[in-house]
Design brief:
By secondary structure, this protein is mostly helical. It is built from 15 helices and 3 strands. The termini are far apart.
Length: 346
């Protein structure tokens, strides 16, 4: 990267106050923001005077700090999630933790903090991984209390934009839901189709619900087929059981900082142990989930031909030919291919 600063040391000083850790020494910041590839740059290898960005070139990179900081961030984030999601299994906690601490999410946070402009690296522009590693390395430099504030102030707010059902997408949610409800004393779990519309159209919709003991609706959702609607309803029911709803109140800022998160170091219960041995508790992998655009047009054409067309027949747009139809070269003369002008319309 070749970014020119008037005074790199002043930028580091301002960054320390911006991130809330002015007591960290400049050397620690430089080490945390130095990627290993920085020393492979031509100007650095040739020891060019005033290689950009500034500060002394040094010989240390942030490799060790990245691993140390990642552990610290994960520890505090899991404690926060266990405090708010005490009814959720540890597998969901780990899935959310993995999502919030991946390169894409941390790189977005680092960009807002201006870290990508301070990273010393060979890359230009700075990659997501290098930017995220710099953020992790900063956590490796900070004390535990500072890392806690870092998680609460910058990582936890990202929870607002995530969908727990997508992050923890079980392969067989209905089977998992059945085992959990039976462990709570429910004797019968029944999926029901509540209503549907547009079955013979290009965009059908089905609304399904999961009933416990024939009376209690534990979750319902919509889908483009009955199987998908039942699957989504089971996911919704699981989130309700784990107290993950749209009106869930999460603590932020000073309110979250005042919570004794140290008391939530023990993992939550394991979903695998709570379900029966034969229940599939695995997640949908990339290999099992197909791209929604795969064969989309082909499926729509076949559905129209086999279902819609057989039910309602040809549409009027295909049966009627009005006065201003462009026609085709085989059936019309060229004068009919000319688009009519307003003053020629009688």
């Amino acid at each position: 990267m070749c970014t020119f600063f008037r005074d790199y040391n002043s930028e580091l000083f301002a960054f320390g106050h911006r991130i809330g850790a002015p007591e960290i020494s400049e050397n620690d910041y430089v080490k945390a923001l130095t990627n290993e590839s920085f020393f492979k740059r031509a100007d650095v290898e040739q020891d060019v005077e005033r290689a950009q960005p500034g500060a002394e070139i040094g010989s240390e990179h942030n490799g060790d700090l990245v691993r140390k900081g990642e552990e610290k961030l994960s520890t505090w984030l899991k404690r926060y999630l266990r405090f708010h999601l005490s009814k959720a299994p540890e597998e969901l906690i780990e899935a959310v933790d993995s999502h919030l601490l991946d390169d894409e999410c941390l790189a977005g946070i680092a960009s807002h903090l201006g870290i990508d402009h301070l990273v010393r690296t060979k890359e230009f522009p700075v990659s997501q991984q290098s930017s995220a590693d710099a953020f992790r390395a900063l956590a490796g430099v900070f004390s535990d209390e500072k890392v806690k504030n870092l998680v609460i102030d910058f990582i936890v707010p990202q929870l607002v934009d995530i969908d727990f059902a997508d992050i923890y997408s079980l392969a067989d949610p209905l089977a998992v839901l059945t085992d959990i409800l039976k462990s709570e004393g429910v004797t019968e779990i029944e999926p029901r189709l509540l209503r549907s519309a547009g079955e013979n159209s290009a965009e059908p919709i089905f609304v399904a619900a999961i009933y416990a003991d024939k009376k209690r609706n534990v979750g319902q959702s919509a889908g483009e087929s009955t199987a998908i609607a039942v699957d989504m309803a089971a996911r919704e029911a699981l989130l309700r059981l784990w107290d993950i709803t749209s009106d869930k109140v999460l603590f932020f800022g000073d309110r979250a900082a005042s919570v004794p998160l140290e008391q939530y170091s023990q993992p939550n219960y394991s979903l695998t142990k709570k379900c029966s041995p034969g229940t599939n508790t695995s997640l949908l992998s990339d290999s099992t989930t197909s791209d929604p655009t795969d064969n989309l047009i082909e499926d729509a054409v076949l559905r129209y031909r086999n279902v819609v067309d057989a039910e309602v027949g040809k549409s009027y747009t295909k049966r009627l030919r009005h006065k201003f139809s462009r026609g085709s070269l085989a059936k019309r003369s060229f004068r009919y291919l000319v688009k009519p002008k307003p003053y020629t319309v009688a």
